[in-house]
Amino acid sequence: MAVRPHRILGAFLAPVVALAGLVALPTAARAATSVCALACDTLDPSKARQVTFPVPDRNLNGRVLRLHVSDPDDMAWASVDNGSTGDSVWLDRSWDRGATWEPLLGKASVPGSWTGTRTLMYNLTDPQNHRRGWVRACGDAAGVSCTAWVYPTVCDGAFCDGADPATAAGDDTPVPSTTLYGRTISLHVDQRDSAAWGVIAGGGAGDEIWLDRSWDEGATWTEGSSLGRTSVSPGATTARTALFATRDPRGLLYGGAVRACGRESAHQEGSCTAWVRPTPTRARAAADALMASYNPYEGWWRSSWWNSAATLTALVDFARRSGRHDYDWAVARTFEQNRGVFPAGVRSGDPVEGHFISRAIDDAEWWAVAWLAAYDLTHEQRYLDEAVTITEYVRGYWDTGTCGGGVWWDRERTYKNAVTNGLYVWLTTSLHQRIAGDTAWGGRAVAAGDWYLGSGLIGPSGLVNDGLTGGCANNGQTVWSYNQGLAVGAFTELWRSTGRSRYLDTAKRLADTALSSSALTRDGVLTESCDTGTSRCDDNQKQFKGVFVRHLADLADATGSAVYAAYLKRQADSVWATDRDALNRFGGRWAGTAPNQRDWRTQAGALGALTAAEGR
Fold first, then answer.
1. Counting runs of H as helices and runs of E as strands, what totals does the chain give?
2. Which residues contact 293 (CB under 8 A, 6 or more apart)?
3. Could you read off the pLDDT of 378-392 as tens digits, one per residue?
4. What's 385's DSSP letter?
């Protein structure tokens, strides 16, 4: 692929000019649009969780011009002190490394009898739109001046842009090199630290090598163009860039993509490798890529209500198994932004009535599962309380007057099915395990589990069908992996709570059937009926397999079974080998066959498979 580097070089040089001390009022600018991440622009600085001063103050004709940053909020504000009436202060924010900027953000003037003032807070980055920003404080007091920009470099933990490739923990070349006029341009990745550098070889003096970094999978790279541009020295034939990060946790940007680009000195055009995301671990690579679809403005994965709950659960499971807390903020953001009331069509096709509750009983249950997982990760009581509130609502639809028990699927009481009741057994016994001294939820769990066993939901072959007929018989409808998995998980947890062998025996029988039956496993790979031939899974079905492996992993942990562990590893190996692209995006068919759909739902399912296999 050919690129013309002279425009990129212009963008690279622009910040050098913009970093000058005294500047004119901004002319190369664009209108500001409100940005929301953990909070929205114009938050009062009194609400900041921290204050740091990452760049030196600027002396502006005796006034103190200062940039304030709260990293936990990912926001900044500006102040001016030792001033006079009419002195003003504001922020500039740039999305292209200082080439252009949104000017005069929060402009405030010193009122009469005061000597200073400050702006409101503004976001440093815009993760929803995959933009990494730079911010500076500017003032006007008989002249205009600005501080330096923050943050011109990306840091991921102790590692920051600009490190020497000699310090890299590894040297992987995950995509083919590209050639240009006899030069070889290659991308090198330190997978462990999610960092990269570029190398040009077989060249001559004046040849150039650089990296591009994109936060939106290679669609744009205005903030990350021409990183580490380096020329081949006289008498040499090779050169390399510095190391650059692909994750910006401070800016809530994960899964950045990089490519290596270069040019031969006598020609303007350049050539680039393919884009790549690093793979520090399989599961972490999947989690980072998944976060590119998270909507921090609204706090969910847009357009699917229950799927977002299951996706959050998969993300939390990854965090618990890996011991990482990169995404705790997303757990909190999802809770805070979605706990309220929403009309039909905003979050779900049904109205959401508060506390994640709607007429679809199973939708509410999925959110209770997510908050129990969040409680286990963070130990925050509010998540456990929310799970109790939701499950109390669900309990209101337990009805012994039809089929002798069971929870209705919907508020209209039209159907009793496997998903709603598998979730209910799991939730009640899980609450019993987490609430000290509980007897009520434990009793409900046993009643629900025993009803499930006698309900007919489990067919004679050991496969769970979708639900019951109006006459309370197994309806013979499609066997889905998530119904099978929920039953495996429910009876595993019920065994943990009671110690009764019949529950563990049931969980193992259901798991063994899933592993051996062509209804769910083909050639050793978990396969839905919609994963075969020319069929396509709908948005719900895309995520079923991730639910199954979550609960099979629980059974594997409970039993220490080598068979279950090997099966989980087989799923992860197949997903990784056949169902992944260079940007660590995964499809719905874990055997990699076509037609293969790919979106955040399939990504979450694959994350479940990779997480379940870690450490086995």
1. 13, 27
2. 301, 302, 599, 600, 603
3. 999 999 999 999 999
4. H
- Residue 319 forms part of a structural domain: yes
Say yes or no: 79 and 97 in one domain.
yes
CA atoms within 13 A on the CB side of 27: 2
Q: Are 47 and 26 in contact (CB under 8 A)?
A: no
**SS3 at position 64:** strand
Give the 3-state secondary structure of residue 276: strand
Specify the CATH number for the domain of residue 38: 2.60.40
pLDDT digits (tens, 9 = 90+) for 320-333: 999 999 999 999 99
Domain termination site, one of 382, 412, 445: 382
Burial of 122: CB neighbours in 10 Å, binned 0-12, 13-18, 19+: buried
| pLDDT (tens digit per residue) in 566-615 | 999 999 999 999 999 999 999 999 999 999 999 999 999 999 999 999 99
Q: What are the beta bridge partners of residue 231? A: 208
Q: Please write the tens of the pLDDT for every residue from 107-135.
A: 999 999 999 999 999 999 999 999 999 99
Domain that holds residue 95: 31-152
Token readout for 126 is: 């815009």
User: Cα–Cα distance between 542 and 301 in angstroms, integer?
Assistant: 14
Q: Please give the tally of structural domains in the chain.
A: 3
Quick check: is 83 in a domain? yes
- Tell me: do 260 and 208 sit in the same domain: yes
Spatial distance between the Cα atoms of 126 and 135, rounded to a whole number of angstroms: 12
Beta-carbon count within 10 A of 454 CB? 12
168-171 contacts, C-beta under 8 A, 24 or more apart: 168/193, 168/195, 168/197, 168/243, 169/193
Q: Are 155 and 247 in contact (CB under 8 A)?
A: no
For residue range 348-401, list pLDDT tens digits in order. Answer: 999 999 999 999 999 999 999 999 999 999 999 999 999 999 999 999 999 999
Determine contact, residues 107/119, Cβ cutoff 8 Å.
yes
